Amino acid sequence: FVSLRLAAEGSRGRTRTPPSLSPRHSPWRARGGVAELQRALEHRSTHNPKPSIMAELQEALLLCAEGRYAAALPMFEVAFLGGGGRTARALAARSAAFFALGDYVGALEDAVAAEKLCGPGGEEHVQFCKARAAFYLDEFHTSQKAFRAGQALHEAQDAAQRAAGRKYDLWLRKCEAEMSDDEEEDKEDMEAEAATPAPAPAAAAAPKP
């Protein structure tokens, strides 16, 4: 992330593509992304004419996890053009891929689209993607607003996690109390047993005359 930030800061003076443009004008497409997409579509039609959209998305997400962002982008395109798959999770993942490749326009547009799919409040990682991309496009007001939204979601999540964790604390205390009571009862039983005198042995029968 630091290296990406330094690289972006080094290009702050260069002309950027306005974020209002559609993704087809993004730097990734200008650098040959369309050709990569065409190759991916040809590969799909040759090897698997009717692939599962989820399979395409899973492959794209796996490539992202491996840091192979350039290879992941055509797979996202194939999945999206297949008639579905444009989930908030998928768009946020592609936003992160665009960001890693220095395409901050594409990163911001996907983050905004993901935010709309999330509904009220959105999701923390979506807000972070949006804020980070906006920052590198010098849209600092948008970035600040998204960072604050993400921070609020993070804090709310932490509070919810702490509240959820307290129920475990409560039940653990109950278990400890019950176990302590059982140990005390066992101790009392042992003491009572030790205090009870042993029965006298039966008298031996007198010998016959």
TrEMBL record:
Record field: compositional bias (Acidic residues): 178-192
Biased composition (Low complexity): 193-209
Superkingdom of the organism of origin: Eukaryota
Region annotated Disordered, chain positions: 1-28, 178-209
Listed name of the protein: Uncharacterized protein
Organism phylogeny: Eukaryota, Sar, Stramenopiles, Ochrophyta, Pinguiophyceae
